[in-house]
Amino acid sequence: MSSVHHDTPGSPGGDTAAGATPPGIDPADEELSLEEAIHRVEEAEHEGRPPTAGTLSNTLTAAAVVALGIAALVGSSRLGLGTARSPEAGTWPLLISGALILLGLGLLATARRTTDAERFSRASLLVLGGLATMVVFVAVISVIGFEIPAVLLAFVWLRVLGREGWRTSILTSLGVVVAFYLLFVAALSVPIPHLF
Question: What's the confidence (pLDDT) of residue 118?
């Protein structure tokens, strides 16, 4: 029975013993610890991404979320809260504003440890655009009902901010508003301003 020999540079006699490093592989790579391997994968994933935000940016963002939640909480209480059996117009906004406050406090607690947030850049203007459309939505909903503003809001978010296709944007916008109407107006009789 003949033995098979492989010539590899740097190995005396050209023999590769069982368990030795195969040709073309750096022996140092085989000895990476799990932490080092994970670190290398994370570095590869972060290539090409914008710089991460610092503690100050994370803190300001969290504070803005808390402030928005508090403002929404005050606004929802002015609409009337009702009870669990008989909710009024402010019930749903109250729940959302409470969730915003809790999420903002969570962001604030982890502001120093958060490393996956991106530094503010020109792309951040899309967030401001989304916030501006929400302000317009809130301003007109009490005048003309929620249906038309909600369709337009969803369409702008999908088509302009999300860069979805025309068909997806139109069908999804209409579908979301119809589902919202059937659930909250037809089924639950939540007293929100509506046209139909």
Answer: 65
pLDDT at 52: 67
Q: How far is residue 99's CA from residue 69's CA, in Å, rounded to a whole number?
A: 8
Q: How far is CA 12 from CA 5, 27, 32, 170, 185, in A?
A: 12, 16, 26, 70, 82
Residues 6+ apart with CB under 8 A from 78: 90
CA distance 102 to 170: 33
Query: What is the pLDDT at residue 130?
Result: 87
Which residues 6+ apart lie within 8 Å of 66 measured at CB?
100, 101, 104, 105, 108
- By C-alpha distance, which of 129, 152, 154 is closest to 140? 152
Sorted by where each begins, the domain ranges of the chain are 30-120, 121-196
Q: DSSP 3-state helix, strand, coil percentages of the chain (rounded to 5)?
A: 65, 0, 35
pLDDT in tens, 69-99: 999 888 888 877 777 777 777 888 888 999 9
Report whether pLDDT(13) > 60.
Answer: no
| Cα separations in angstroms, 154 against 86, 141, 184 | 28, 14, 17
**How far apart (Å, rounded) are the C-alpha atoms in residues 137 and 123?**
22
Structure pTM? 0.48
Average model confidence (pLDDT) for the chain? 78
> Position of tokens 């978010």?
157
